[in-house]
Amino acid sequence: MVEIRLENLRKTFGDVVATDQVNMTLHEGELSTLLGPSGCGKTTLLRLIAGFYTPDSGRIYFDDRDVTDLPPHKRNTGMCFQNYALWPHMSVFDNVAYGLKLKRVNGMKYTKAAIERRVNEALELVRLSGLGERHIHQLSGGQQQRVALARALVIEPDVLLLDEPLSNLDAKLRVEMREEIIRIQKELSITTVYVTHDQQEALSISDKVAVMDHGYVQQFGTPREIYHNPQTVFVADFIGRCTFIDGKIKSIGEYIQVQIPSNQIIAGKSTIDGYPFEVGESVKCAMRPESLYLERTDPRDNEISGTVTRTIYVGNATEVYFEVGGIHAQALLRPDAPVKAGDKITLYARRPDVMVLPLGGVEALRKVPGHPLFTAPAPSTASSNV
Description:
Layout: E1 4-13, E2 16-26, E3 31-35, H1 42-50, E4 57-62, E5 65-66, E6 77-80, H2 92-102, E7 104-105, E8 108-109, H3 112-125, H4 141-153, E9 159-163, H5 171-188, E10 191-196, H6 199-205, E11 208-213, E12 216-221, H7 223-228, H8 233-238, E13 243-252, E14 256-259, E15 265-270, E16 282-287, E17 302-313, E18 318-324, E19 327-333, E20 344-349, E21 355-358, H9 362-365
Parallel strand pairs: 3-10, 3-11, 6-9, 9-10, 15-21
Antiparallel strand pairs: 1-2, 1-4, 4-5, 7-8, 11-12, 13-14, 13-16, 14-15, 16-21, 17-18, 17-20, 18-19
Helix pairs in contact: 2-3, 2-4, 3-4
């Protein structure tokens, strides 16, 4: 298994910047997810790692080996494609064996007995033992995905690359295959890079998540870090649900005091160490719906008052939509919460649960010293008086 190190990767297609300034270390044996909306650059980044694309600039390392200019077949990676890419005229066994028949180890081919042993081991790993003689059209979607996974694993790759492997499955099968991928990845302890646009999928399977937008990695961290400490408005909005309230900074201390449109003051924390907030700066206060309560838990809790516009009973909770100074917000309250449309409502939020976020995405992150996207300000050209 290997550690993958990406250094300042950039890839363009004509005038389109597919990915830029990517600096990440994907640790050995971990499952790292590239997450983002369609067109954000996640598949391009996966294909750069695989060797299908060559970066315009930057380097790719597997451990200390520079693989930037190596073709795919010399990187020892296994890849599962979104459409499975299985041969319909071949049996399950032959599909899985295909890579082994092409592979050479020290210039020597695998024997027929070695291929049979390895293929059967791979089929057992993905729980398809006894189905080697079937053809692809005789399999369900979930079984086809398992064949594609077995084919990628049978060559004993250093890195496993998965490009939205579950997108063609129904909801129940997605959950089942998600668990299977986690089991196999942990059992083999193989360095894995997984592409998805499904936030729940990313949070549930990943050791680390890279949230991407317009070719840039806006945040890279554990699922818990990404959810509880998003560093940009985009990340907070894309990962789970979030209530955003616009405001302007009134003071900066242990907690940042923000005045919101209803002239209320709420206090929260920055999620970005070292961000240069300024008094008077326009910001967004972000709160997860489950972080708003009907009762105060601490005298210092933030108090947010508004008017209920709609309620939705969802079984284990009540979704409450309300308006604060012309801004629409959302809370997730207990199922028996005594609120209805038209009610005046006061909710409470703990100060640590209120996230004060700068406006902008990449532009904001460029202001943070030590951040991979940091851009040092240009030196002043104004002459000083002597």
